[in-house]
Amino acid sequence: MAKSKTAAILKDNLWTNNPIFIQILGICSTLAVTNNLVNTLIMTVGVSLTTAFSSFTLAGIQKLIPRKVRMIVQVVVISFYVILIDIILRAYFPDASKQLGPYVGLIITNCIIMGRAEAFAQANPPGLSFWDGLTSGLGYMAVLLAIAFVRELLGFGSLFGIKVLPESFVPWTIMIMAPSAFFLVAMVMWWAKSVQAGKAQPKASSKPQEAKK
Amino acid sequence: MKKDSIAYVVVFTFVICAVFVGVLAIANESTKAAASANKEFALQSAVLGAFGISYTDKADASSKYKSSVNETVSAGGRAWKARLDNQDYSAVEAAGPGLWGTITVILAASPDGERVRGIRLVSQNETPGLGGRIEETWFLGQYEGEKSAAGKIAMKAGAESSGKADPDKENSRVEGISGATRTSQAFGDLVESALAKIKAMGGK
After folding, report:
1. Is the CB of residue B154 less than 8 Å away from at least one CB of chain A?
2. CA-based, 20 to 30 A from A206: which of A36, A181, B102, B159?
3. pLDDT of B17-44, one tens digit each?
4. Is 0.90 exceeded by the ipTM?
5. What is the residue extent of each domain of chain B?
6. Residues 140-199 (A) with a CB less than 8 A from some CB of B
7. How far apart are CA B77 and CA B63, in angstroms?
8. What 8-state DSSP symbol labels residue B149?
């Protein structure tokens, strides 16, 4: 029972209910950080850990939280973890901290974290909430890394900062700028929804129907 | 006490805030030393980098900083002097507005401000991947050994920029970053103000 539930949560958060292309959460950071794989990786690890630990903590104290102030408590717990990550980065990973700069603080505003706190951690035990938060973060990470892969490759001709395309390659400046992330996110959504719609109705025509939620 | 009573809500909120803020305060206090050591190292490595003094690690940087660089004070903030290859060089810390926030650099040049020795970034908040590329070595490296025309180094930004480093050290011009015109221009102005500062310090 427990095992099938964890597997179901994993599949849900990575695919059927992915935070980016189904729930459309955390889009701001998708636009901001994905022009570079290294930043994307650090940022998404930060979001995953924050979501996991804040869901865990909130689930642990869910019985004590009065409904009136539950959102305030969620914000306190989420910002607690983000500031903790910032302090740790500053002390032990100064390079990463310098690279990320303002983005660490922006983890707080990521809608996925509060979304999971509201939708899952309120009504589930801490262990399962931790898993739910972590897998939500992984779903976010998977999509962002895919987008960053395309953007860094075409925008800089490199992957993780290592040049892979020849010197003669002309970088697509648009790929470094935020608008390109709009196009790529839209393409990912289109692809994911077409595949999911195709699975739901095997006889679906080549024109995918808009899947209304 | 009932969970929805005002007293409970007040006490609960107070306790939650006290606990979480308390833990953060402890974490901040206990990592303060490491964080300030990192900051110190970042500054020292920027000064050494601007002077073109190489170092292997943190301890080496610290000892080289102590042995070959003299910290002085100029009118506008911190300044350093060093004698390298039988020539005197001065360095200043200069800060100016970028596109989003303040850019702080350390620039080393000959005392008359006519020849740049090198430049390093201390902090910037420009757009990652665009203006943030002012941290890249090809960009900063253009300034190394660049001659200034009466304290001016032209920044080729915007449409005329090719986005590739300008190898000519005598033409008093550098290439800006394509896609980051405003940051490039701001950086060019900042370099000129730093050169003016060095000139104002003179040979003293």
Report:
1. no
2. A181
3. 999 999 999 999 999 988 888 888 888 8
4. no
5. 70-201
6. 155-156, 171, 173, 176-177
7. 23
8. B
